[in-house]
Amino acid sequence: MLKPESEVLASRLDAVVSEHVAGGVVGASLALVRPSEPVLTLAAGCADRESGAPLTPDRLFRTASTKKTWTAVAVLALVREGRVGLDQTIEGWFPRLPRAGEIRVRHLLSHRSGLPEYEALMPKGAADDWTPERIVDFALSTGTQNAPGETFLYSNTGYVLAGEIVAAERGEPLSRWLRRAVFEPAGMDETWSGGDERVPRERLARAYIFDSARPGTPPEESTGWFPLSGIGAAGDLVTTPRDLARGVHALFTGQILDEAGLAMLRGPLLPASFPGTNIAYCGHGVLVSRFGELAIEGHLGQLRGHFTMAGHHAASGITAVLCQNSAESDLEAPGSTALHPAFAEVFRLAGA
């Protein structure tokens, strides 16, 4: 049973989530972790518009690019073991990749590799049979490669390669190492790398896209639009908000990486921006959102109708994950951008 003060907080947070859904979102699910308290979960709205099934906290989400934090954790574990250097160039692993002799490991993790982005060009409803090599070939054939260095250019391609570095050095897929070394110790028993692990898809909240050019029209279901194998180490995470919040909290409170490894994950912070978001800085697998004086470190994830924000506030020790199962076709439209202020309000109400 919740303490009276926790019941008040739960009621206020429930109002935030419900108001967010009432603003035009199909469904939203929240998990909150405060120091020395059990995980608080809430959900509102619909998991499946066709059946009318309500969204409940145990529903799974494709939390997309929140996987990048865990891929970076895997790379930095190798760095701490002395097997990989952040300033090491990547041609030893990818001798045929253009400009591999100029791209450093840290460039992959901080989105400064210059490698082209491909996600928006992935064919709608493509078969779920992609390999990392095929992804990189697709990106290079459809996009323009830039010089690596200090310019922030978001690149899923770079994280696909980061995952391959882990696989090469560990002698096993990234997903297997993460399950054994990170997810299981952190108690994340409802978390999968959907690109190469079997996911209980019947538990997925269905995904929906609103056509921003036709306000007021019903959304189109988009659950099968993007293959998880087509994003791999850059974004194939499937999990519940509770599991993800538990893992993010463990990470930022020093339970997964040692102090030096966590410092490398967090920085050095370099300027970064995404249209329609509050992202201000990027570390190695970490994005920092600023809401006035409130700074939240973590990551966001968007994958054709599933939209997640996961973050931690260092001073208060509070962690939250907020997921929704709908988005606008224009990611700068209100149906998508409204997640950011709702996420910030969760932290403020929780005491950040």
Layout: helices, strands, pairs:
Blueprint: H1 4-22, E1 27-33, E2 40-48, E3 53-54, E4 61-64, H2 67-80, H3 105-109, H4 132-142, H5 156-170, H6 174-183, E5 192-193, E6 208-210, E7 220-221, E8 237-239, H7 241-252, H8 259-266, E9 270-271, E10 279-282, E11 287-291, E12 294-303, E13 306-313, E14 318-324, E15 326-328, H9 334-337, H10 339-350
Question: Would you report the number of β strands?
Answer: 15
Query: Structural class of the helix and strand makeup?
Result: alpha+beta
Oligomeric state of this protein: single chain
Write down the Rg.
Answer: 19 Å
The fourth-level CATH homologous superfamily is: DD-peptidase/beta-lactamase superfamily
Q: Strand order within the widest sheet? A: 3-2-1-14-13-12-11-10-9
Query: Number of DSSP helices?
Result: 10
Gross morphology is: globular
What is the CATH topology descriptor?
A: Beta-lactamase
Distance between the termini: 23 Å
**Strand-residue proportion:** 15-25%
Q: Average pLDDT value?
A: 95
SSE series? HEEEEHHHHHEEEEHHEEEEEEEHH
Helix content: 25-40%
CATH architectural label: 3-Layer(aba) Sandwich
Would you identify the regions where 5 or more consecutive residues have pLDDT less than 50?
Answer: none
The total tally of domains equals 1
**Strand count, sense and closure of the main sheet?**
9 strands, antiparallel
- Name the CATH class: Alpha Beta
